[in-house]
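Section 3.1 - Work completed
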Amino acid sequence: MSDLRGVDFREARLEGASLAQAHVSRCYFPEGIPAAELQLALEHGTRIRSRG
């Protein structure tokens, strides 16, 4: 399990990343990634896809 609590991902390139079973409270994510996409990545281990 990864502990990513408090990490600022706003400038990160997360396309294709998976957050399966990670701890991500108090994190910032890029605006181009919908909340539903992050939820799928956390709960099911799917790869993140950004909008546009």
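Second construct:
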Amino acid sequence: MRTNLTDKDLGEILRERLDSLDYPYNHNDWLRLERNLPKNGTLLSRLLSRTSYKLAMIAAISAILVVSFHLISKKDITSTSPVNNPSKTLSKPSSPASDIQITTKKTENNTPIEINAAKSALSVQKVQPASMIAYNNIQNNILNKPETGPVESKLIRTMKSNDQSISLIPDAEFNVSIYSGCAPLSVTCNPSVKNDTIFYLWQFSDGEFSTEINPMHKFTKPGSFDIKLTLRYFKSNKETSNQKKNIINVLETPDADFNYENSGNTYNFRPVHNDADHYRWLMNGDEFSGESISHYEFLRNGNYVVDLIAYNSNSCFDKVSKVIHFEAQHTIYMPNAFSPNGDGNNDVFGPTGENLSDFHITMNIYNKQGLLIYTTSDPIRPWDGKIQGSNQPAEPGVYIWKLISTDKFGNTDSKMGNVSLFRN
């Protein structure tokens, strides 16, 4: 509903516009100016002319400002009005209850402008900028676009990826460092997924288990064995497992061990078990026999490392080493009594035995006071019961002897004992 504006209404509107300017019109100012002017007519006319010029400029500027204000208001209102409206309507929202609508119309001879105003109960709508409308359209297209489309937006792919990582079940695939071998077999397990946020449980069919990420397990007995891997995320508790049957094949290995015995310098070696097909015997790293039962003659005193390597049909082997301390035993005997009385029976004291010529022998005789009374390096020159260097017979009693013998291999043997001297 429109109502025509009266001249009074239009005057009030113009006065409100003019009062908002920097130079409001006031009649008292004119009176005050007139009283302050000089009485000289010529000067008064000059001042009045200058003042009139200033007032005319102020009025012109005010008119331009009023027209500019109406044009701007008209443009803002027209941008929100329908395009099929034949009249140019300027709508300036003031409140939800009332709007003032100003319609302008020119006559053909440029007569004064007719201005109509009407009150409307239309609600005020907030106009969004074009950039905001475009952003909302793009956002709606992204959110409403089907996921099965040929091209998915980066936002949707990221959201899917994040959601998938949250609901993802860990991959329990794994491999091992070795699948078959001789006992004891050491196997290292390698999961395809390694993450500190995952709990690992490895179960072996020999009864053992591990919670390490890359465990190393040793199978000590022959046979086929299973390995099972169970994974669980700490946060989501999602769990999966993977069991591989008979993934490990452990072959039987022979048990190498031996005993030995000696007779003099000769040692006899014999394996304890008979679960091997062939053997290798080594002395200080040098092989000396390939038989199951072996013999070895030691020549020099010292420590010797004897190795036995036992092999079976699976090409598996076992090795055992033992250290043997060898000290040559010289078969030299010493009597414990003699009677140097010249009867031809036990008249001398000295070493006896076979192959005495193969030894270098030194014999010393001491009395109870520890004094050396006889020494010899010739096994065929025994003690005749006299003090060496004189023909004085030694007193009957107990004497101490010491024998040092060296064989042809440089092995030295030392012995000590007591001998009783008897005289009838």
